[in-house]
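Protocatechuate 3,4-dioxygenase subunit beta (Cereibacter changlensis JA139), 245 aa
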Amino acid sequence: MTANSEGDRDPLFFRDRDWHPAAYTPGYKTSMTRAPFRPLVALGSTLSEETGPAFGQSMIGALDNNLILNFTGQPAIGERIILHGRVLDETGRGVPNVLVEIWQANAGGRYRHKKDGYLAPLDPNFGGCGRTLTGPDGSYEFLTVRPGAYPWPNRVNDWRPMHVHLSVFGSGFGQRLITQMYFEGDPLIARCPIVRTIGQEKAIEALVAPLDMNRAIPMDCLAYKFDVVLRGRRQSLFENRREGM
């Protein structure tokens, strides 16, 4: 519970423990070798994990949130988009000074990674990652290209939908949440074995960024809005920490 300004207690925010998928999901082939088969052990955090390091503007470069230019300074190839939203607590209040990082495939569906063997070409001007700090109201924004879908060796013909990986940090590196954002209208979302490990449609919907024409720039780029909720009943689905921040 939390105390309000009048000294009363706000209601407790119960979490839905079924919101996240099971670790062992045979439809997602690699989970069969990575899922734990013994009870998990909870380890307490240390003071250094809870109090530092502090993320400040001094560590953010001028183009860190501009994935179109931040790799070489020359424009990347692909459909330009704005990805924006807010990092919120369970009451809907914005959380300021949160370090937000994203990484993604290029417009052809290929990552800049030595183990990515997809036949799509690498874009010499696209590094595929960026970072920014949330503003006083918890807002963030990235300029990037829409990532392409790509095949992956799960079943005979499985494809990952267009998606962006996103992480947010608390006050230190020990407080990190990771999730994926999908794009409204992508027909591959419903066909993706990873997405289908999520048992609730509302949880899947929370990972889909709607088109936001109010933030689109005419004759330039479309925009998509994706809010991240850290805890509570409206919590975003995170890959690495069910309980939120």
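The CA atoms of residues 24 and 37 lie 9 Å apart. The chain is about 5% helix and 25% strand. ok done for today
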